[in-house]
């Protein structure tokens, strides 16, 4: 089974750097960057509005926890958004590619 991990970053450079590291370590099969997102949130008692980049990582269930841990280590935010979603349906070919790209023993 595959999983999606969603996170946000302050700029494309940081999101790209983290996505590349996770793919190179076989913790994610793919990282898709969605620039120009606007986030409105409460932080330290104030309502903030900032531009962010959304990163969607595609990984396997077997490597998802290691991917989340490494994402948290590499992330520049004090409190990074890290949300894991389990899709209810994935095309067979795409699912097979993700699983092949994220071996049970990452870094292989």
Protein architecture, described:
By secondary structure, the protein is α+β, with helices and mostly antiparallel strands. The chain has helices spanning 12-24, 64-74, 92-101; strands at residues 2-9, 30-43, 46-60, 83-85. It is built from 3 helices and 4 strands; from the N terminus they run βαββαβα. Strands 2-3-1-4 form a 4-stranded antiparallel sheet. It is elongated and about 45 Å long. The two termini are 19 Å apart. The model has no long low-confidence stretch (mean pLDDT 94).
List keywords for this structure.
108 residues; alpha+beta; four-stranded antiparallel sheet; 3 helices; 4 strands
Summarize it.
With 108 residues, this protein is of the alpha+beta class. It has helices at 12-24, 64-74, 92-101; strands spanning 2-9, 30-43, 46-60, 83-85. Helix content is 31%, strand content 37%.
Helix/strand structural class: alpha+beta
Question: Strand fraction band?
Answer: 35-45%
Could you give the order of the helices and strands? Answer: EHEEHEH
- What spatial order of strands do you see in the largest sheet? 2-3-1-4
Overall spatial form:
elongated
- Give a quick account of the main beta sheet: strands, pairing sense, barrel closure: 4 strands, antiparallel
**Number of helices, counting only DSSP H or I runs of 4 residues or more:** 3
């Amino acid at each position: 089974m595959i999983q999606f991990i969603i996170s946000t970053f302050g700029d494309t450079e940081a999101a790209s750097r983290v996505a590349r590291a996770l793919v190179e370590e076989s913790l994610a099969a793919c990282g898709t960057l969605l620039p120009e997102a606007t986030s409105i949130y409460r932080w330290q008692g104030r309502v903030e509005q900032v531009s962010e980049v959304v990163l969607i990582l595609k990984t396997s269930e077997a490597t998802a926890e290691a991917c989340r841990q490494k994402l948290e280590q590499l992330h520049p935010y004090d409190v990074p958004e890290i949300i894991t979603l389990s899709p209810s349906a994935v095309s067979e070919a795409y699912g097979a590619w993700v699983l092949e790209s994220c071996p049970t023993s990452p870094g292989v």
